[in-house]
Specification:
The protein has 216 residues and is α/β, with parallel strands linked by helices. It has two domains: 118 residues, Rossmann fold (3-Layer(aba) Sandwich); 81 residues, Arc Repressor Mutant, subunit A (Orthogonal Bundle), CATH 1.10.10.10. The protein is 53% helix and 12% strand. It contains ten helices and five strands. It has a five-stranded parallel sheet with strand order 2-1-3-4-5, sandwiched between helices. Helix 7 crosses helix 10. The longest helix is centred in the middle third of the chain and has 18 residues.
Amino acid sequence: MEMTSNRIIIADDHAVVRTGLQLILDETEDMEIVEEARDGDELLEKLKESVYDMVILDMAMPGKDALDVLKEIKKNAPELPVVIFSMNPDEPNAVRMIQNGASAYINKQTKSKQLIDILRIVASGKKYIFPHQAEMLVEAVSAIGKQKGVPHHLLTDRESQVFILLASGVRISEIEEKLSISKSTISNHRNNIMKKMSMSLNSELTRYAIKHGIIH
């Protein structure tokens, strides 16, 4: 039985980056770059013309700002995964992009195997959040929570990290690996989160996080 390949469109103004990614994904059977764009405007036009399974979007391109491009994509196709590709590991930018719907924010220096692993996670419909990005999200979430007096400001930093990952659809085994904590510890954190936020299901955490602009 032939494996279905995820159709990816990449937007990057550097041909060498587009070619490099093409070569990396040529080694896989389940992902392929089927279209390229040199800037955000060209990307948005091509998204109107065809259907893709994932977008890889350069953080710094000429023309339309990457955040504006991301917002427009999520407005028109909210389920379409968008991966931000950046030369600069600027964490505030990472937080901003993830909060506005990006499925992952990846440094261009990421090794090929890890890049492929991340893209596969994103292709499955999940977000990929690095631990250091989760810490920045925790700070942003805590600041918003304290200002608004909403339940998530009651969470500890570690609980906030687990909350964000659970709300983003990350599996327990992946959280265990990302945060280097045991499944039983994660389960304890989850119980505390549910108690503090008066919830019982992960889907409730997701709806809450979306409602409060923590994730999209």
